[in-house]
Amino acid sequence: MNSVGLQYKDRNSSNSVFSKYRSLTTALLCTLVSTSTFATEAEIKPIVLFQSEIHQGSYLYLVDKGTRRFEQTTSIPVTRKIIDKSNGLYIQELINAAKEGYSPIVVIESNSMDTFADVARTYPSIRFISLDVSYHVPNILGLTFNHAEGAYIIGYLAGLKTKSNKVGFIGGKNIPTINNFKCGYELGLKDSNPTAVLNTDYINKGPRSWDDVDSAKAISQKMLDENVDVIFPVAGYASLGVMEAVKNDGDSFSFGVDQDYSMQFPSSTLASLEKKVDVAVFAALMQLKNGIWNGNRKHFGIKQGVINVAINSHNPSVSTSDKTLIDKLILELKGKNNAISQKINLSCSSTQ
């Protein structure tokens, strides 16, 4: 395995950790291949291009977790490369990887690169896996996620818990993927508390946006000083800055994102929006290993179990009725043609 700059110690590397994902992954594999024509097992040479360092518990950590599971399952090595300077350099490394015959190439943040689709068209024999964005390009598989579904539940809970009637949203960058979270969050907020006011801000520092904990903390403090008492961060590893600021404030609440932060912030987080991108990445790599290519977009949400809201049972401010409500909303969102999904599709489709 070629690992460049991986600076974390994985506490969950044993095969036993993966067992809890087995049924979910099986279901996802069925989703991925349900309309496909099976081909012979393909020889693949995967690479993942990370746009910044991998911090344990971060979104990038989950992506890497999915690739490590693939390596353990198949014994096929996955090359990793970390590019942390500029999107221009990222594009050059993308071109280099294609020239060197890597396939599939997993691209983390294609929505910030205007020329990504052109690069893919230049190398039609190379497969690309794009996270969060899909393209009408035959050799790009877009793994997209209905963030708005989970964010709706987060927003609904925020509306119930705010005392000041001021809640906050802090995004890493002002881009469609992040605004899909914001859209669902605002819909849920208004449904539970129509008089609540949403304050929004973004870190917006290019590729550094997802790691800039200090900026996230500063933005949070500004909101807290303005009497915002519930904040939802969607800023990758930088989200920790928001959670830390809220914890230190002692009189406000935040939410976790990408994974469950209940244990790390037991008294200050209300819930966490889990995005199990590791399971989606693993399933996509397995599909390509099995020689299957059946369309250029796979969409995951609460129905597929990839998006989930984990309530913080350690927080005394989260009541039994809150937990019951969250379970009810999740169950409703899993149903066909439910009213919440229809509202989300009508309001938030343009932000995906």
At a glance:
The chain has 352 residues and is of the alpha/beta class.
Strand adjacency order, main sheet = 2-1-3-4-5-11
In N-to-C order, the SSE pattern is HHEHEHEHEEHEHEHEHEEHEEHH
Largest sheet: 6 strands, parallel
How many whole angstroms does the radius of gyration measure?
Answer: 20 Å
State the helical fraction: 40-55%
CATH superfamily of the largest domain: Response regulator
**End-to-end Cα distance:** 33 Å
CATH architecture of the largest domain: 3-Layer(aba) Sandwich
- The share of residues in extended strands comes to 15-25%
Poorly predicted sequence stretches spanning 5 or more consecutive residues? 1-20, 33-39
Provide the CATH topology of the largest domain: Rossmann fold
Main location: membrane
Subcellular location: Cell membrane
Membrane topology: Lipid-anchor
InterPro entries: BMP_lipoprotein (IPR050957), Peripla_BP_I (IPR028082), PnrA-like (IPR003760)
Q: What layout of secondary structure does this protein have?
A:
Blueprint: H1 15-18, H2 22-33, E1 47-50, H3 59-74, E2 79-82, H4 87-99, E3 105-107, H5 116-122, E4 128-131, E5 140-145, H6 147-161, E6 166-171, H7 176-192, E7 197-202, H8 213-225, E8 230-234, H9 239-249, E9 253-258, E10 269-275, H10 277-289, E11 297-300, E12 307-311, H11 320-334, H12 339-348
Parallel strand pairs: 1-2, 1-3, 3-4, 4-5, 5-11, 6-7, 6-8, 8-9, 9-10
Antiparallel strand pairs: 10-12
Task: Give the key terms.
disordered N terminus, 17% strand, Rossmann fold
Describe this structure in words.
- With about 350 residues, the protein is of the alpha/beta class.
- The chain folds into two domains: about 160 residues, Rossmann fold (3-Layer(aba) Sandwich), CATH 3.40.50; about 160 residues, Rossmann fold, CATH 3.40.50.
- The chain is built from twelve helices and twelve strands.
- The strands form two sheets. It has a six-stranded parallel beta sheet, sandwiched between helices.
- The longest helix has 17 residues.
- It is globular, with a radius of gyration of 20 Å.
- The protein starts with 14 loop residues before the first helix and ends with a helix.
- This is BMP family ABC transporter substrate-binding protein.
- It is found in: Cell membrane.
- It holds the Pfam family Bmp.
- It is a lipid-anchor.
